[in-house]
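Tutorial sheet, problem 5. The two components below are modelled jointly, 724 residues in total.
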Amino acid sequence: MKFESDPIVAEKITKMGKKVVADIFDGNAPAVSLPVRASSNVHYDKDKGLLYLGNSMSERNFLNFAHTRKFMQTMIIASKCKELIEKGKTASIRELYYELKHNIPGTKENTFEGQDESDPLIEDLETMTDSLREELHLKADSSGILFGQIVIEDTGDRIDCSKLGKSGLAIPSIVDDYKFLECDAKYVLVVETKAMVDRLVEEKYHIKNNAILIGLGGQAARGARRLIKLLNERLKLPVYVFTDGDPWGYYIYSVVKTGSMNLAHESKRLATPECRFLGMTMKDIDTFSLQKVTEQLKDVDKKRVNQLLNYEWFQKLHWRKELKSMLNKGARIEQQALASKSLEFVATEYLPGKIARKEFLD
Amino acid sequence: MKFESDPIVAEKITKMGKKVVADIFDGNAPAVSLPVRASSNVHYDKDKGLLYLGNSMSERNFLNFAHTRKFMQTMIIASKCKELIEKGKTASIRELYYELKHNIPGTKENTFEGQDESDPLIEDLETMTDSLREELHLKADSSGILFGQIVIEDTGDRIDCSKLGKSGLAIPSIVDDYKFLECDAKYVLVVETKAMVDRLVEEKYHIKNNAILIGLGGQAARGARRLIKLLNERLKLPVYVFTDGDPWGYYIYSVVKTGSMNLAHESKRLATPECRFLGMTMKDIDTFSLQKVTEQLKDVDKKRVNQLLNYEWFQKLHWRKELKSMLNKGARIEQQALASKSLEFVATEYLPGKIARKEFLD
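Model answer (structure tokens):
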């Protein structure tokens, strides 16, 4: 697989390698510098609506005994990524670990003892080269499903996503190479659970409303986040997010919109600040008389609501109100609770009504 | 959605209802009888290679105070399933719960307090009517992905699964309505992890070897199990299973092949006794010099190996040997550990070699 970014990323890795070689020949300690990836260095850009990584830098120095092992590991990961780029191959982060795990000649040391050693260094390399993991030709786990009025070219195949029955397209972890050949859709509807997508597909919601449906299956995987971003950016499609009415659902929305804390360095390529929240909201419970099908807030839910209340990107008045209303009611509400009205209700009334009335939380 | 089984299943539910009405008019206690779903009533049929539910029956009697609530719940679930069949609709088991959750008029009682009350009764109804859940128009969670040389008709759409790029078809929970229009594939390769399927797709394994690839993403979902069964049954395709070399992977194989204990009543429609196990095996570790990339068996792994050693369907000599060898080595081996040879190795040597040499565990 080839990406437009390949020559740039390969060049960045080469430059890093040359710097280290120069250090050695100049008689200096080989060292690389990299941004600090800790919550202390994660900030929220209110204007852009994005989490980002701040300017704090740290150094990894080969002659600092505490750094030596990580320095070695960083170098062999960087070298392997450059090889993947040159070969046009991609590897899962687990494969990368196994590819690089070996005995260091003349010692009893292994290069890596576990994937918990290689994974953080991949994130280091991403920040050092300001590249997406996928641009380093590495893959995370994929998850997510797509239906709708769009034709995608993937690896030379032309895929009409409106003709995938009730099965749908599995969203892979790398989507940067997708070409959007045709698109009649008016908007993208991002849905927390796959079961709710099944419901909407059975009601032909995507056909009747000219929508692209993306089912996340819980927290959004990187591939799904990147795809939502690309649909918004390249096709200028509005994005609406539909999750459970609980802190976990609201956080899923915020990750799609603003980015996540541990991937703050990639927000600008993974997050879609323009997306808007459709539901479920606490107001829905009263509007649609859903009191009988709420679930009681558990302690773990309450704790999470309070965490959200402290996040900088949940300080908008309507979100504070929403979260406090949840604590007051002591209740949460699931997407599928709408089935208590009727199976069709979500597709024929709830969603089209909310969109028509522009009843969003931003 | 319409199934061939619709009239038969609707008739069975009607018959059950009529029996209960007759009980009432005859002045008897309304009652239904159903098979016992407990491990004591789960047996292994050595000849067919299938787990099955035995003949122990129990009765659910409305006038037995301990049964009253469950009896009421069973009736409203059966009634709703009949309605779904007649309307040609399907519902997730969570939607069913919410659809049926309501106040019982004139009381403070709810029909259901949680999904943990409705789920077991769905399984009861399956066994009472000898129907698959899907034939009751109910859906479980879906998971799994498909690539390969097969054209499927799904809900009127013609899907060429060899033209889905690196994305692939998401396997839904209901596949009984799939029509297999064309198939050039020589076999089905069932793979435990989606990441390994990504690898095989990148190597164009499915194209070069004329194979259908099914990625499970862990334990096989019902839809994937049923699809494997249908491919084997309708198209007479051999099925090979490729999992991690650990007790969890071996159990995934046994579920695909033999059925699972808690769904023993559905083995004959979900299990594929003809399927064969390709790897990873303990012998692979020596054959391919993978000693450096094994993982140590943890206590929880050892415990699981010993459980497997006690299962009736793991008593074949080669499986006992395999499991004991795992305990002796104190090691397990993952599919992706093959990347230590080279990324391509699994696709160019490991799998084709094993299949050519018929190196299966049955």
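Marking note: The first helix of chain A runs from residue 6 to 25. Full credit if you identified this.
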